[in-house]
Amino acid sequence: MSDSDYGSTAWQVTPSQYAAEREAHYAMPASPESRYLTMRDGCRIAIDVWRPEGAAGAVPAILVLTPYYRRFAVVPGSDADAIPNAGKFVRYLVPRGYAVVVVDVRGTGASFGTRDAFRSPKEREDSREITDWVVAQPWSDGQVGATGISYPGAASDFLASTGHPAVKAIAPLFAVWDTYADNYYPGGILLKQLAKSYDDLMVAMDHDRRDLLRNYVYYANPDLAGPHPVDEDADGTLLAAALREHLGNFRQPDFMGEFRFREEALPYDPSFSSASFSPYSVSEGIRKDVAVLAVSGWMDGAGYANGAISRFLTLRENKVHLMLGPWDHGARCNVSPWRREQTSDFALLGALLRFFDHYLLRRDTRLEAEQPVHYFSLHEEAWRSAPSWPPVESSTRLSLAPGATLATTPGEAGAESMRADFAWGSGNGTRYERIAGINSTTYYADWQKREAALPSWTSAPLEQDMELTGHGLADLWLRSSEPDAAIFAYVSEVEADGTVRYVTEGLLRALHRKESAAPATYRTSWPFRSFRREDAAPLVPGQAERIRIPLLPISWVFRAGSRIRLSISGMDADHCVQVPHGRPPELTLLRGGDQASALELPLRPRH
Prior knowledge:
- The chain is of the alpha+beta class.
- The protein has helices at about 15-20, 85-95, 120-135, 150-160, 180-185, 190-205, 210-215, 235-245, 250-255, 305-315, 350-360, 445-450; strands spanning about 35-40, 45-50, 60-65, 70-75, 100-105, 140-150, 165-175, 225, 290-300, 320-330, 375, 380-385, 395-400, 405, 415-420, 455-460, 465-470, 475-480, 485-495, 500-510, 545-550, 555-560, 565-570, 585-590, 600, 605.
């Protein structure tokens, strides 16, 4: 099946229909205007300006703020793509009447300076100054939008948070809201490989190590010859000086290890914490007249979909739209087990264009007639729309019961014990590889074998098709032999023929089990945790505790005759650190009576 919107009734005008009918009047320039802008502290920032050829009047500008090279130099005569990161936006938006300004953020590409973090507060101030320059140009109509995938997407939030009056619309695509919980410490558990992999990529780029960069499929073309100098730097002298400064950039494994607790300040800088590079922390600065398009996918890393949903819920006074598709990070793949092709067929650029056309060009797009939420339901292989999130507000509770079953009633009290297997892992075809720059294309293909090694509880066969849309919850009562533990909860569909398919998962470090009210800058539809040091508490070995683990959001249709399965692990050795180190805990899950563990799912019949 395809993730295309062709024939879908989820829109009045589908993105592909809009794209097909939208004219492209202008030509692309052969090359951009490229120059340095000098920031308040003297740091020179490299920008490329791509403007529509033949545009008679002023046009709006779209900013893409990236650490992944605004443009590559290319070996003469090569047909290699010089703009593999921003190219899809440049080539699509410029012929349709937008100027696209692509920026090497401070300490990257041809820009000078060093990076003290990703999405540093210094970059936020740079984006404000860059916007000042853009709107002062004779070709600018005074309106600015911003977009990008992953890092540039979150940079769009940071730009809007400056409150600059020219910023009217942002489209953060596959972008975190909270770098701590959405990315590096999901459930308070460090993803051990991610920091190293990201560091390897950024050393390859920031130090212009082309021998290392070619290890990444996105940059494997040998004709890519490092960052492109700006127009005024004909002999590359300035570029060489900028690259020397980049040798002082932060190193991710060392850096991320400083942030074991969310919002805990660095010992040498009380103003800097994980909040400093997370958009939620500055979201109150986003003006209410800024429109927002938040996009993510069901397999988008450790929690990017949570980021998109929290952005939608938090900015509810803005004109905000939410789209969640059957995608991995960046929609490089359609992740559905029932896909026809690996690549996505969805007209994401059409949806982006319609959004900017509506809020920047003021075209009659009929976008205001659409529902604000669109999501793709797996196993039904169809797009759906909703007026709000979550689409399914009712909850079905399935209790752990004797005989490794899930039952509709708690039953009598009992217990099941398991020793955490620190050798068990979820494999290398999971939701976590793509965010580490790994070219993953097949997802959970070996799940049946891996899940079979875990203790699990399975429901009776379903009498009808049931749609799960939203955040499930593993509501567990447990005892641990150790003062800390990591709990991984997995939901699978067991089809009538015995095939077991991964649906979603949730993970939580028991140290962070305390729940609290979500702040105004970080609204959620799942149990919120601060992950702060003052809220962390060790377990008392042998004492029963209630721990509610939110599952990552998903829309999935369980077929009639299938069964729902909950599996529990105390480790994912392929991605996460041990908790506690070298001391695999014995976990006892309680069932029935007053301490009844259960799986709660937002389910509704699908007719």
